[in-house]
């Protein structure tokens, strides 16, 4: 963004927790504009602005998904060993 003086940039993006703004590689606080929209200030001159959505709930969900896949893999190994199926026996098993 290029501005002749300090300016407020207003978007049509609804202001919602998780929106992040970086100006020239430095995180800045987004500004709620008109009670509902995402905005941010830019200084005079040319600035590189990055707006992205990264809610904490997404990261929690990703972590839970990774843990879930790991637990399922452990349960599959445990069940195979309990039935006496080894890796070698599974390689020799006929395909259905």
Task: Please give a handful of descriptors for the protein shown.
single chain, 96 residues, alpha+beta, 3-stranded antiparallel beta sheet, 35% strand, rod-shaped
Quick synopsis:
With 96 residues, the chain is of the alpha+beta class. 34% of the residues lie in helices and 35% in strands. It is built from 2 helices and 8 strands; from the N terminus they run E-E-E-E-E-E-E-E-H-H.
Characterize the structure shown.
- This protein has 96 residues and is an alpha+beta fold.
- Helix content is 34%, strand content 35%.
- The chain contains two helices and eight strands, in the order ββββββββαα.
- It has a three-stranded antiparallel beta sheet, with no helix packed on it.
- A hairpin with a 3-residue loop joins β5 (31-33) and β6 (37-42).
- The protein is rod-shaped and about 75 Å long.
- It starts with a strand and ends with a helix.
- The relative contact order is 0.16.
- The mean pLDDT is 89.
SSE layout and pairing:
Layout: E1 2-3, E2 7-14, E3 19-23, E4 26-28, E5 31-33, E6 37-42, E7 45-46, E8 49-53, H1 56-82, H2 87-92
Antiparallel strand pairs: 1-7, 2-6, 3-4, 3-8, 5-6
């Amino acid at each position: 963004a290029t501005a002749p003086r300090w300016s407020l940039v207003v978007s049509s993006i609804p202001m919602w927790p998780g929106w992040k703004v970086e100006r020239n590689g430095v995180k800045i606080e987004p500004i709620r504009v008109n009670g509902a929209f995402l905005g941010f200030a830019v200084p005079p001159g040319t600035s590189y602005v990055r707006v992205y959505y990264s809610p904490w709930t997404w990261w929690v969900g990703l972590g839970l998904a990774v843990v879930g896949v790991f637990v399922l893999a452990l349960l599959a190994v445990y069940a195979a060993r309990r039935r006496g199926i080894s890796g070698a026996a599974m390689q020799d098993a006929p395909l259905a």
